[in-house]
C-alpha cells in the first residue's frame, strides 16, 4: 500500500470514529434525566395533558375546574412531582390547584396579577430534582436554570405537604436557596 492510500484510509477511519463518537455523546446527552421524561403514572400524565391544553383565552375558573376534575395526587411524592412539572412549565393554574385552601386564599391575587403564568423566558428551568426530607411530609425541590449561553444556577424550595381527607395538598412553600420568584409564588 503506498503512502497516499494509507493516509486516505486513516483519514476515512478518523472520520468514522468522529461520527461514532458524536452519535454516542448525543445519545448520552439525551438520556440525562431532566425531570420532564415520560411518566407511567396516570395521574401525572393527566396533569401534564391538562397543562398542555391551558390557554390564556380560557376563563380561569373553567381551567381551575378542569384541574379539580383530574385524578388527584395519591401521595406526597406524586404531588411534589406534579408541582415541579407545573413550575418548570410556568403553569400557575396547576400550581394553584395543588395548594391547600388556606394557601389558595393568600395567593390567588398574586396568581391573577401574573396572568396565571409563572417563570421567565430566560433563564428557564432546564431540569429539577426532588428529595423527601426524612420522616417528614416535606419535599425539597431543586430547579436548575439555563440561558442560551449556558447553565446559570439553581433555586430550591421546600414543600410541606398535608393529607386532609385523602387529598394531598401543599400547606406551605419555603424558598431555601436562590430566588424562587417569579417561578414559584412563595408565601
Main-sheet strand order equals: 1-2-3-4
Largest sheet: 4 strands, antiparallel
β-strand percent reads 15-25%
* CATH architectural arrangement of one domain: Roll
Shape: elongated
Question: How far do the termini sit from each other?
Answer: 76 Å
CATH level 1 name of one domain: Alpha Beta
The third-level CATH topology of one domain is Nuclear Transport Factor 2, Chain: A
Q: Please bin the fraction of helical residues.
A: 40-55%
Structural class assignment: alpha+beta
What Rg is obtained from the alpha carbons, in whole angstroms?
Answer: 22 Å
Which H/E pattern describes the elements?
HHHHHHEEEE
Unreliable stretches covering 5 or more consecutive residues: 23-37
How many DSSP H or I helices?
6
Mean pLDDT: 83
Task: Count the beta strands.
Answer: 4
Task: Write up what this structure looks like.
The structure is a single chain. With 187 residues, this protein is an alpha+beta fold. Helices cover 44% and strands 24% of the residues. It has 6 helices and 4 strands. The protein has helices at residues 3-31, 42-53, 60-68, 76-89, 92-97, 101-113, and strands at residues 124-132, 138-147, 150-164, 167-177. It has a 4-stranded antiparallel β-sheet, with helices on one face. A hairpin with a 2-residue loop joins strand 2 and strand 3 (150-164). Helix 2 runs parallel beside helix 4. Residues 23-37 have low confidence and may be disordered.
Can I get a quick summary?
The chain is 44% helix and 24% strand. The protein contains 6 helices and 4 strands.
Amino acid at each position: 500500500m503506498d503512502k497516499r492510500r494509507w493516509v486516505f484510509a486513516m483519514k476515512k477511519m478518523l472520520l468514522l470514529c468522529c461520527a461514532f463518537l458524536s452519535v454516542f455523546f448525543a445519545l448520552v446527552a439525551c438520556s440525562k434525566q431532566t425531570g420532564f421524561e415520560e411518566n407511567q403514572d396516570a395521574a401525572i400524565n393527566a396533569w401534564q395533558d391538562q397543562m398542555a391544553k391551558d390557554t390564556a383565552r380560557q376563563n380561569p375558573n373553567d381551567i381551575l375546574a378542569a384541574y379539580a376534575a383530574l385524578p388527584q395526587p395519591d401521595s406526597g411524592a406524586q404531588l411534589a412531582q406534579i408541582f415541579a412539572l407545573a413550575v418548570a412549565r410556568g403553569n400557575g393554574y396547576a400550581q394553584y390547584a395543588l395548594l391547600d385552601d388556606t394557601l389558595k386564599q393568600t395567593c390567588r391575587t398574586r396568581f391573577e396579577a401574573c396572568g396565571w403564568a409563572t417563570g421567565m423566558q430566560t433563564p428557564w428551568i432546564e431540569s429539577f430534582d426532588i428529595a423527601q426530607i426524612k420522616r417528614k411530609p416535606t419535599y425539597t425541590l431543586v430547579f436548575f436554570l439555563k440561558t442560551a449561553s449556558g447553565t446559570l444556577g439553581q433555586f430550591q424550595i421546600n414543600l410541606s405537604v398535608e393529607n386532609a381527607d385523602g387529598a394531598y395538598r401543599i400547606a406551605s412553600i419555603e424558598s431555601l436557596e436562590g430566588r424562587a420568584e417569579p417561578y414559584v409564588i412563595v408565601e
